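Issue 218. Parser rejects a valid record. Input:
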Amino acid sequence: MAAPKPSVERCMGVNGLEKIVLREGRGSSVEVKLYGGQVTSWKNDHGEELLFVSSKAIFKPPKAIRGGIPICFPQFGMHGTLEQHGFARNRFWSVDNNPPPLPANTSIKTFADLILKPSEEDFKIWPHSYEFRLRVALGSGGNLISTSRIRNTNTDGRPFSFTFAYHTYFSVSDISEVRVEGLETLDYLDNLKGMERFTEQGDAIVFESEVHKIYLGTPSKIAIIDHEKKRTFVLRKDGLPDAVVWNPWDKRAKAMADLGDEEYKHMLCVEAAAVEKAITLKPGEEWTGRQELSAVPSSYCSGQLDPQKVLQGSA
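Output the parser choked on:
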């Protein structure tokens, strides 16, 4: 029996929100909503969900969807008059019928191209003209690749600046059984301590309480190791120098209407980002930020998982 071919399907999802479903020949899949340009599902070839989406997520505009991979643009965080994490995650995107060519990658057979341009209302709160092109792709091995291309299309000669993040929610067995490797000894800004700057210790990051840190000058590869599931997520990134690590823990989770009280135990956000230094584009200039996610089995070594094979493996 022949294996199913890669496919792209456009259909309706929850509350009539349109989505594009990508399927790869061996069974992995990705769903991306036109609302927010947001990936809300990424499954491996066994049908296991790899991203966390809250059971209380609100799939109704103008609320952003709690989980998956929201896109933070034109700002990360809360600054000035713009809403938290900007507006890209709660706008309707369009299918991009004329995407510019991206570098050839023979392992990618299925992808979706979306585009966001400012509305008149957006222009009132962020008075710049831009084109934000997003390609969501599913590699032959089930890898999830997100490529963002943002171009300044101002006609008045003005540059603009922005910050950015792929706000990825990973699904984990239990937050107390997870560790993150690749960020040791780096400087970070602690959002729970007024963005004060600290240096991470030499050990892998583990979780025992609320955390919201912005790591600076991070490597291109970060590993998220789930001991219980014996699974390692590998995050590779390009054009995104920072990495945000966030878990709300119990008290903050209970205060969030769109997150279950105990759901913080089963999620971890590790976000490829450009936060510390804003990106500035002159008219006609374009910026590209890319993230590739993969999930691989972890092996035990002397009672511990051995992520070094992952971090030192081929890019």
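Fixed in the parser; the record now loads. The helical segments are 120-125, 249-254, 308-312.
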